[in-house]
Structure formats: C-alpha cells, structure tokens
Design brief:
alpha/beta, Glutaredoxin, Serine Threonine Protein Phosphatase 5, Tetratricopeptide repeat, 3 domains, six-stranded mixed β-sheet, 15 helices, 6 strands, elongated, protein-disulfide reductase activity, Thioredoxin-like_sf
C-alpha cells in the first residue's frame, strides 16, 4: 500500500499493513491502468453512485450493491470510505466531521459512508477489526487508513495531504476544487474566558493567580488536559522564578538533602538541562524510601507534565523511574 500520510503511525501501521493484503481491487486497478493509457485528456469525474445524503452528490451512503460503482470513482478522485456502525458513537462523530469537510469540497474527493451492520461484507473485504475505520482509495487501491475518530483539525490536514499527493494523478481533483464553495479551513472555536483569565495571569507573571484559575477549571472538569498542563506550567514557573542557580552545586554536595535535589532539578529544567534534571531525581528515588521517595516521585512526574507525552526524554525517564521503583 502506498502511504500518503497517517494521523498517528502507532494506531495505523498495523491497519495499513493489513489492508494492503486484505483488499482485492485488482479489477479496478486494471481499469485504472487502461484508463490512463487510453485517455489523453480525462473528463472530470461523474457523480458517484450510491444514495446521496441530501447535502452534496459527492457524499453518499453506500450499500454492498453500490460499493463497486462508488469505488470506481477513485479513478478520478480519492474516495474516503468511512466504515462505521450506527451503534458506535465514535462512528457517528466521525461521520459528522467528515460530512462537514466534504460539503464545500466541490467533489474533489468523495465521502462514502458504510454502515457495517447493513453491509458487513464490505467490512470483511477491508479486513476491518474495529469501528470506525477510515480508508482512502485512489486509482482502485487503498492507499492509507486510520482507526478511530480524529479531531477536525487532524482530519483537515489528512485530507489536504491526500489531495496534495494525488492532484497530479487523479484528474477530477482539480475540477472539483474549481467548484469548491470554500477552502478547507478550520473554524476557530470561541475562546474560553476561564482559560483567557488563567493565561493572562500567567503572562503577567502572577503565577499564584494562574494556578488558582487553572485549578478552578479542574475542579469543574477534572479530566481537562489543557487545564492540567496549564497548572503544571504555572506551578513550575513559580518555583523556577524563585530558584537560586547555586542550588545545583549545593545539591551535588548534599545528595541526601531532598529539598536541594528538588530545587536543583527545577533549576536544571529551567536552564534546559532536562535530561540531567530527570536523572537527578531518578537517582534520588533509588537512594530514598518511604514518604521521601513518594515526594521525589511526585515531583518528577510533575516535571514530566511540562513536556509532550511523546517527548523521548520523558519516555526514557519514565522507564528509568519504573526501574528505580520496582
């Protein structure tokens, strides 16, 4: 399978590999080759078969009977096949997002929505293991896929890169783009006044007020990840502002001084010595026990929250911390 782009390689690598062997569109591939050889100037894509959803002819609900005709349109434009189920809220969410993005596209790509409860053989043909699964088909072949829902911004980027990669190969893309009613743009949601207040406090250096604002959000929404990140940043900024650069040398000379080790780690993170800070606290965890060990562990975990979860320095330090604890 040719991969245009993937929103999350960890989620899609196995799926894409499976699709490359699971889907047999050999007849379509042969037809695509013949079309390229015989058509010096291909005509724009015809409207897709299937049942239109009422908003645009390039958004269709596909059955087992109409699927072949819809996929044949991939000789002209990419066909984004959404394999979902009516019982799955994630399928409904993703269908709504893809429909919103497809409506203004002018037919530069086709959204083919499949309800696997009504058309299970289509899911079997693609080797689907979970819903929703989304597959991009071009030139009669699946070229990319992802499982699960995505945020609208990620979907927009995925579709944009799909079109960019295929524009010179599929003649209907440019024709559809010429008819598009609006460019593919993300509508910015209104700013949350709670976050505005917290961020303004942070920017003026009032870290205590920023912490209180972020904490108030978390009190109302304990799972709010942005508020968690903001609170961690505000707590660290307050500590870092009060840090004495000489604390690092002090901590090096007093390995059993817990307060010095924590302050030194903060100073090192503030001066971009991130790996050194993580190592310092992991080594301290190895040396202490009981409440002191838990205190150091919690401080280190708090430092992890200052960085993206996929930061390799965080991943390595988490592994080292687990080894030190167990």
């Amino acid at each position: 399978m040719e991969h245009v782009t993937r929103p999350d390689p960890r989620k899609t690598a196995a799926l894409s590999a499976a699709l490359s062997g699971a889907v047999d569109l050999g007849a379509l591939k042969a037809r695509a080759d013949a079309a390229r050889q015989s058509a010096a100037a291909p005509a724009p894509a015809a409207g897709p078969a299937g049942a239109p959803n009422g908003s645009a002819p390039w958004i269709v609900d596909v059955t087992e009977a109409s699927f072949q005709a819809v996929v044949e349109q991939s000789l002209q434009v990419p066909v984004v096949v959404l394999l979902g189920a009516s019982y799955s809220p994630e399928s409904q969410q993703l269908a709504a997002s893809l429909t919103r993005l497809a409506q203004p596209s002018g037919g530069s790509w086709i959204l083919a929505r499949v309800d696997l409860e009504q058309a299970p053989r289509i899911g079997q043909a693609f080797g689907v293991q979970s819903v929703p699964t989304t597959v991009a088909v071009a030139g009669g072949q699946p070229i990319d896929a992802f499982a699960g829902p995505l945020a609208d911004a990620e979907l927009q980027q995925w579709i944009k890169r799909l079109l960019d990669a295929l524009r010179d190969r599929l003649p209907g893309i440019r024709a559809g783009e010429a008819n598009a009613s609006a460019p593919l743009e993300e509508e910015e949601p209104p700013e949350d006044p709670r976050f505005v207040a917290a961020e303004e406090a942070f920017e003026r250096g009032d870290y205590v007020a920023a912490q209180a604002a972020f904490q108030a959000i978390l009190d109302a929404e304990p799972a709010n990840e942005l508020a968690k990140e903001g609170l961690a940043q505000a707590k660290f900024a307050e500590r870092a502002e009060a840090a004495d650069p000489s604390v690092i040398a002090k901590a090096d000379g007093a390995p059993d001084d817990i307060d010095a080790q924590l302050a030194a780690a903060d100073a090192q993170v503030a001066s971009q010595q991130v790996e050194e800070a993580f190592k310092r606290l992991v080594d301290t965890v190895r040396r202490v026990y009981g409440d002191d060990r838990d205190r150091v562990r919690q401080h280190l975990v708090g430092l992890f929250e200052l960085f993206p979860a996929d930061d390799p320095r965080v991943a390595a330090a988490r592994r080292n911390l687990a080894s030190a604890l167990y």
